Amino acid sequence: MSRISVFLIVVLFDQTSRGFVSSLRFNPLNGQHLNVIWPLWDGNPKGLSGPFRGGALLDSLADHLNFTYTMVRVTENILEPQPQRKQRGLFNYLFDKQCDLLVTGVAATSERLRVVDLTVPWTYECYAFLIPVQEQIANIFAAIKPFQWPVWLALLISIICVITCLNLLHQEDQLKRPSAVRRAGNYYFYVLGNLLSQGSACTSKRLAVRLVAGVWTLAAFVFVQAYTSILFTYVMAPINPPLINSVYDVIENSDINLLYRKGSTLNVLVSDPEATGIFLKLQNKVKTSNSPQCNLISECINMITPESTNVFANARSFQLDAIRENFEQTGKCGLELARDCFMGIPVTLALPKHSPYTDAVNLGVLHLQESGIVEHWSSWFPSMPGQCERQTKSGHVTRKTEHSLSLKNLTSAFIVLFVGLGFSLFVFGCEILNAICHRHQFLFDDK
């Protein structure tokens, strides 16, 4: 790096720091001591939900805003209180002035904005589905998948029509010229040979026959090229397709059971009596399927087993942590993410309503975002194991394809081969029986 580049970076950082200090000239947090809740603090029970980067965020805010803090021990794993169940939530600590700052994944909703102060988003998440990795299955129908059944039916009818036309033209030619050589069998080989890329000569010099043969040659070329190009994708396709790909699969498939944590943002949106759109459909899905819900993330994850049709919806970062922990425990990748996220949510911090510290925390979060440190924290935590790394640049999940094909990829090809060999042996046996019968008949006639 050149001296000019270093100088520019130093000047830029100095100006940013000066602007931040000047904007907080009357910093209400300066020298204050706060009571803070971070669910993943070591003093809390294991299994509570919260952002791993929350501790780093809290320390950075304390350093920038010059305040100290004490952790408040909690056992609750939901935000909003549940009066009908006589269950407290983390917001109760804000209501009762027992907590000055709640560092967890609080998604902004109109109901929450009415009861607490929410900061500007410090990160953004999307809801993703955690699903079990499916067992590998034999790719039996790869040979017929390139065409839908109407195409196969149309192709069969076309073969019959072309052979019939050629035979009729040949019969007409025989009526006009009785001495014409019989070629009916050659037309079958010609039609099927072109379709199987074997090729066959059209010896007839009649214009009508050559027109039919030329049209069939062009059609066969299109059929063969379309089939072989699509066949390659089906042969190379994963032989353990995912249970679902998107939220629409969850809604449309009655066998899928949707799991989500009680008290989560999705739970709030799905349980809303005035829910609309996709949340109304998920609400109806939950009511009709009677899917079991869970209080802790670990409870939901334990229900995601290879033989089940359960899918767990949660923030994507939490799902990646679950995949990594599952790999560390079992030594294999038993969990994966569905391809598509379905709900983007801004993640904020929460303070008591009309807190004097809200504006200062907002400025502190904005300064951390501008510095890029929030994204840098991701590299501080354990990364995804290479065996389970299936993330693309767009953030979606893709499935790894091995460089070499397995027997399960080519099962359909071997099925076609064995069926053909079996049919050939059957015809061969029939020919042998027919020859034996003719020989016995010949010997009987001689006697």
What is the topology?
Layout: H1 3-23, E1 33-37, H2 54-65, E2 68-71, H3 91-95, E3 101-107, H4 110-115, E4 116-118, E5 123-132, H5 149-176, H6 184-195, H7 207-236, H8 247-252, E6 257-259, H9 265-271, H10 277-289, H11 297-302, E7 310-315, H12 316-330, E8 335-337, E9 343-352, H13 358-371, H14 373-376, H15 411-446
Parallel strand pairs: 1-2, 1-3, 6-7
Antiparallel strand pairs: 3-9, 4-9, 5-7, 5-8, 5-9
Helix pairs in contact: 2-13, 5-6, 5-7
Detailed description of the structure:
This protein is α/β, with parallel strands linked by helices and 447 residues long. The chain is built from 15 helices and nine strands. The chain has helices at residues 3-23, 54-65, 91-95, 110-115, 149-176, 184-195, 207-236, 247-252, 265-271, 277-289, 297-302, 316-330, 358-371, 373-376, 411-446; strands at residues 33-37, 68-71, 101-107, 116-118, 123-132, 257-259, 310-315, 335-337, 343-352. Residues 1-22 and 391-402 have low confidence and may be disordered.
Q: What descriptive keywords fit this protein?
A:
447 residues; alpha/beta; 15 helices; disordered N terminus
Overall shape = elongated
Task: State the order of secondary-structure elements, H for helix, E for strand.
Answer: HEHEHEHEEHHHHEHHHEHEEHHH
Helical content (DSSP H or I, runs of 4+):
40-55%
Count of individual beta strands: 9
Radius of gyration: 35 Å
Count of alpha/pi helices: 15
Main β sheet profile: 9 strands, mixed
Mean pLDDT level: 78
Structural class: alpha/beta
Q: Low-confidence segments, ≥5 residues, pLDDT <50? A: 1-22, 391-402
- How many angstroms does the end-to-end distance come to? 108 Å
**Portion in strands:** 5-15%
